[in-house]
Amino acid sequence: MTQPNRVEQTLQVPAEASEWAHFASRYQALQERALAAADVPAWLREWSDLAAELEGTGNRLSIQADLHTADDAVQERYRRFMGEVVPPAQRADQALKEKWLAVPGYQPTPDTELLYRRVRDAAALYREANVELGVVHSEQTTRHAQLTGGQKVTLGGEDLTVPQVKARLDSPDRTEREAAWRALAQSNQELAQQLNPLMLELLDTRRRLAANADLPDFRAYRWSELDRVDYGPEQCLDFHRAVAEQVVPFVAEQVQAIAAELGLDSVRPWDYNRGNLLDPQARPPMQPFSGGAALEDLAQRAFAGLDSGLSDRFAQMRAEGLLDLESRPGKMPHAYCNYFPVTNQPFVLMNVVGSAEDVRVLFHEVGHAFHGFYSGESQPLTWNRWSPIEFVEIPSMAMEFLTLDHLGHALSPADLARYRRQLLLGVAAFLPWAAQMDAFQHWLYVDAPQDVTVDDLNAKWLELDRLYHPFVNWDGLDETVRAQGWHYYHIFQVPFYYIEYAMCYLAAVSIWRGAQADPTAALERYKAALRLGSTRPVPELYAAAGAEFRFDAEYIGGLMDFLRGQLREE
């Protein structure tokens, strides 16, 4: 069982280690050192170690801020780090990039070839004006985390966290679902009064970042910042169309069939949870565990059945205070995996309520953790760990599927079949949502007028929701609630990072399909791909894992046919 004090101990940062003075002299020494081509490998390793220490410090402070959103001292320390340490570090990193790029006669080695190209592109994108503007942007996203972290929902006279209320949306009792949905909608509407103006502030900041970099729009800026070189916006637009054509009808068919079995007159918003569709037999939600410690035990046994190496990694996370799973007031209501590169330690934050969805999310986030472990062991340079973002969700999403055959200790045969069906349907139901999220951002950052208003944002979201979720009946309801569905974590915090989830879910299904034929070989490919880190182009990483880097209509249609076949076997 992970003890909270062990988590806090893991996250501790000495006061002096969060000050710029702690890093400045080492950056200066690297900058002043004479550098010939033969000296680059050792110099790079020293720079990497320094960058890893700074990154780990920032990540620890960020997690502390997410765990204590109402603690002013914790929030202020993180703000100071972002405002007083990150800007000079960015300037120092830019100077070191330019120094490396200017070394005469230098030829990158195979393990630094892609890194060298990325450094060259990042150096070209750098603008001094964007250093301070980046601080403004960080302050704005921090405000979003604080607002959402402090959100309360009043239901039945009780103040609940958002995850606690969302768990009630899975109830077989339609009246209970509707009450939970309306309470959450009311809370969201109240929070919207602060989120709406914040989004317009973020939009202005992001447009200025692009303009400072001499780029036509924020999409072009973000494309460069995210190093998207293996596909362009056109392929994203093709994906949007493919999902509308190939996936939306399939999801509508599945959702309406469930509604018919339940005798529902139509599918109302409280009848549709894309991550956990209603049970057609109206059984109560599965509750495979109670509390974070029990979820850790459940996962430990599943990983032990899958692979001893993975099981050992998870045991290490438990022992070293690298899991904080419980939902509580003042904690940011999201789930993620972060990383401390100096010690090669991943950290998972969640908000569990005892649901089967929590089981899936834990496997997902720990899949990220495995990526950190394996790439960190194999890649000495911190920049070569993890992977490009088009691949980074594959280790997590594939783990959702690879653990399916190792849950018999936690779920009865009937519940395991139910969990498996939910996972498969969840992939299909996720794709329209991903297309909608991505399409909204293409419009927001490229086509939206300069004087765009919140009403314009709402109107565009409403248009897209009608396209991608036409099977949900909103008659008689306040459509403002529907129109503000863009109030979502990634829209505020990590713009344009969402289509990757869809790419990787498609790849994860492919990996699982391969595992059904040869589970041992599939798992070995999985781990081998993780060890490559960020040293190979995206298509090569997909191939190493046993998948294809595709998201066109033909490919998506083929995977939907595979899912149909799997569902018929239930």
Task: Provide a brief overview of the structure.
This protein has helices spanning 4-11, 21-32, 40-67, 72-84, 86-101, 113-125, 129-149, 162-168, 174-212, 218-225, 233-262, 292-306, 308-319, 356-378, 389-392, 394-402, 413-447, 454-468, 479-483, 489-493, 499-517, 519-531, 538-545, 553-568, and strands at residues 153-155, 158-160, 323-326, 336-340, 345-352. The chain is mainly α and 570 residues long.
Task: Give an overview of the whole structure.
This protein has 570 residues and is mostly helical. The protein has a domain at 4-126. It has helices spanning 4-11, 21-32, 40-67, 72-84, 86-101, 113-125, 129-149, 162-168, 174-212, 218-225, 233-262, 292-306, 308-319, 356-378, 389-392, 394-402, 413-447, 454-468, 479-483, 489-493, 499-517, 519-531, 538-545, 553-568; strands at 153-155, 158-160, 323-326, 336-340, 345-352. A three-stranded mixed beta sheet has the order 3-5-4, with helices on both faces. Helix 2 packs parallel to helix 5 (86-101). The longest helix is centred in the middle third of the chain and has 39 residues, at 174-212. The two termini are 35 Å apart. It comes from Deinococcus proteolyticus (strain ATCC 35074 / DSM 20540 / JCM 6276 / NBRC 101906 / NCIMB 13154 / VKM Ac-1939 / CCM 2703 / MRP). Belongs to the peptidase M3 family. Its cofactor is Zn(2+). Keywords: Hydrolase, Metal-binding, Metalloprotease, Protease, Zinc. Residues 170-555 form the Peptidase M3A/M3B catalytic domain.
Please report the distance between the alpha carbons of the first and last residues.
35 Å
| Cross-sheet strand order for the largest sheet | 3-5-4
What is the gyration radius calculated from CA atoms?
23 Å
Described by the principal axes of the CA atoms, the overall outline is globular
